[in-house]
Design brief:
The structure holds 2 protein chains of 2 kinds.
Chain A lengths: L9 H15 L2 H13 L3 H31 L5 H8 L5 H4 L1 H29 L10 H11 L20 H18 L2 H27 L13 H9 L8 H5 L2 H15 L5 H6 L9 H31 L1 H4 L7 H12 L4 H23 L1 H11 L3 H21 L5 H40 L9 H27 L6 H7 L1 H38 L2
Chain B lengths: L2 H27 L3 H4 L9 H5 L1
Classes of the chains: A mainly alpha, B mainly alpha.
Chain lengths: ~550, ~50
């Protein structure tokens, strides 16, 4: 933890803000959010998005920080252990299987998208974008070939592009970089990055934003594809394709809006709860998490929301926005067009993708800590052995995502079932655990201890009643549509009909069984330790 | 861009910017914030020191 010197300065306080913001900002802000907003017609999507932020994101972030610190004070750092400390029931630690599976599976595809960012940055470094000129179709085509959208196994290399077009090459670099940092535990380096590179990323994004807002109508032959209509596509509540109320009646949109809030805030991941367990008894958690949430939302809504979707509308047209294979795709097919139309676009393009790559690394490094904590305290493994074991598991998963690249279906399937659905389930479990099992009064006492802001009393009613009810109602509507409305059911139909989706779900099941067994073994060790403790006590 | 679009955009962007501004104000005016505020980035897990 941060052991500060005796003298506080404005710079050191700003450093705290940047460190808090830096750890919250990642690929979800600049790539996933615009993709989802485009998929669900912008303005209408923002309604469930902000409701989810206020009723789920912020309250459950507080819940996770408070439960983590509570569990840490009782000697547990892993989610299964913390749940066991809170809920004296045999099933409690097994609920933690989600908190293991979610970050590990997300890591499998997150690190691949990290690799795309690094590859795109390197293309700017070696002037490899020059040949595409100002033709938006070429940038889109390149991404599709690079990511292997046209067939399985095609992401391994791109014809005529050498190493620069090899997704697997950049994935290996990212994998090695991540594991060296995790293996050696270079926390201070990450903190340093957050304080210095994060402002640079925000400045870069602001420069890009100014350019997007001044694009006007780049192609006079297509006068409708102008920046004002692009902003309209992102923010108008009604679109020509679908009405406002029709949009809002889609439970999938509400589920995905909540999922995006959880994904970008790292809530319902099992990550915050683990890190919070290392805090001291009187450290602040209320203002820390509110600052992280606000910094994250600023980057997501004010920067991410104003850049990628309007730019994609201007360069590619509204039809393309409806045909994305993955929510992560939008930034990669759109932003090179913007940089191509900028003075100094090469430098800005390189900095933007490279800083985004570094921001993604700060997020991915934390993703394995929940599983490391379980392996250490449950199985007695050392940090390095834990990292090596997780390195093997995630390498197999990442290879799966890279190989089954057709229409990015493996990535999209893992992203929905783990990056949205499983996070949703874990967040629901955690809010019920806090509000009903730990007890809302005890929980609020934990949250308020050491708080640098006053947490209003109404928050306890939101956590106890509103958040669980909201989560359950949306889940109920979503299940109803998937099970009883075959016309609109998408995800379950995919599982029945598509082999890649079946294999992806199979991968999730295997990882789940593995962690289930590890938790069972951990429970045995915890019980044995407790028995020994009881025998020692006179 | 419709009037509704302008309203949604101004409320969304303005709302998150104001929230961030308020948080920054609170952090820089709170004595002891550098000691008491934490993020994942500055939390050093004990196992790193052990090996």
């Amino acid at each position: 933890m941060n052991q500060t010197g005796p003298k506080e300065t404005w710079a050191s306080r700003l450093g705290v803000i940047l460190a808090v913001m830096g750890s919250a900002v990642g690929l979800g802000n600049f790539l996933r959010f615009p993709g989802l907003a485009a998929q669900y017609d912008g303005g209408a999507f923002m309604i469930p998005y902000f409701i989810a932020l206020l009723l789920l994101g912020l309250p459950i972030a507080w819940v996770e920080w408070a439960m983590g610190r509570y569990g840490g004070a009782r000697g547990y750092n892993s989610s299964p252990g913390i749940y066991r400390a809170i809920w004296k029931h045999r099933a409690a630690p097994y609920a933690g299987v989600l908190a293991m599976v979610i970050p590990v599976v997300i890591y499998m595809y997150y690190v691949y998208i990290e690799a795309w960012c690094l590859a795109y940055a390197c293309r700017y470094l070696f002037d490899a974008w020059e040949k595409f000129g100002n033709d938006p179709a070429q940038y889109r085509e390149y991404f599709r070939q690079f990511a292997g959208v046209y067939g399985n196994g095609q992401a391994l290399s791109t014809e005529g592009e050498g190493l620069l077009g090899s997704g697997i090459f950049f994935l290996i670099i990212c994998f090695v970089a991540n594991f060296v940092l995790i293996y050696r535990g270079l926390t201070k380096g990450i903190e340093w990055f957050c304080k210095w590179a994060m402002p640079a990323l925000i400045v870069c994004a602001l420069i890009v934003l100014v350019r997007v807002l001044t694009l006007g109508t780049p192609d006079p032959a297509k006068p409708d594809q102008n920046v004002l209509n692009g902003l309209g596509y992102m923010w108008n509540p009604n679109t020509p394709r679908i009405g406002f109320w029709e949009s809002l009646s889609n439970p999938q949109m509400w589920l995905e809006a909540a999922g995006q809030i959880f994904f970008s805030l790292s809530v319902g991941f099992g990550i915050i709860i683990t890190y919070a367990s290392y805090l001291r008894r009187n450290d602040d958690i209320a203002l820390s998490s509110l600052t992280a949430v606000s910094g994250n939302e600023f980057c997501e809504v004010a920067l991410g929301g104003l850049i990628a979707v309007p730019a994609a509308f201007v360069f590619l047209g509204p039809e393309v926005l409806q045909q994305l294979n993955s929510t992560f795709e939008l930034g990669f097919v759109t932003l090179p067009n913007v940089f191509g139309q900028m003075y100094g676009g090469h430098l800005v393009g390189f900095l933007f993708f490279f800083l985004l790559f570094l921001a993604a690394i700060t997020s991915s490094l934390s993703m394995l800590q929940p599983a490391i904590a379980l392996l250490e305290e449950g199985l007695g493994l050392g940090r390095k052995a834990s990292v090596a074991l997780l390195g093997f598991i995630t390498a197999v998963g990442s290879a799966f995502v890279v190989y089954f690249s057709e229409n990015l279906l493996a990535l999209d399937t893992l992203d929905f079932w783990i990056g949205t659905f499983a996070i949703y389930l874990l967040a629901t479990f955690q809010v019920v655990l806090f509000g009903w099992i730990l007890g809302i009064e005890r929980g609020m006492e934990e949250l308020r201890r050491g708080a640098e802001i006053r947490v209003p009393s109404f928050v306890k009613y939101i956590i106890k009643y509103v958040s669980p009810l909201y989560l359950l109602v949306i889940f109920g509507f979503w299940c109803y549509r998937e099970f009883f409305d075959p016309e609109k059911a998408v995800r379950l139909r995919q599982i029945r009909e598509n082999l890649i989706v079946q294999l992806s779900v199979g991968l999730i099941v295997i990882v789940t069984i593995l962690f289930f067994l590890l938790i069972a073994q951990s429970v045995k060790r915890w019980r044995a330790a407790e028995l020994r403790q009881q025998e020692k006590t006179p | 861009m419709t009037v509704g679009g302008w309203i949604v955009m101004i409320l969304s962007v303005g709302g998150v910017t104001l929230l961030l501004g308020w948080c920054v104000y609170k952090v820089v005016t709170t004595p002891g914030s550098t000691e008491h505020l934490h993020s994942q980035a500055d939390i050093e897990t004990p196992d790193v020191r052990e090996e």
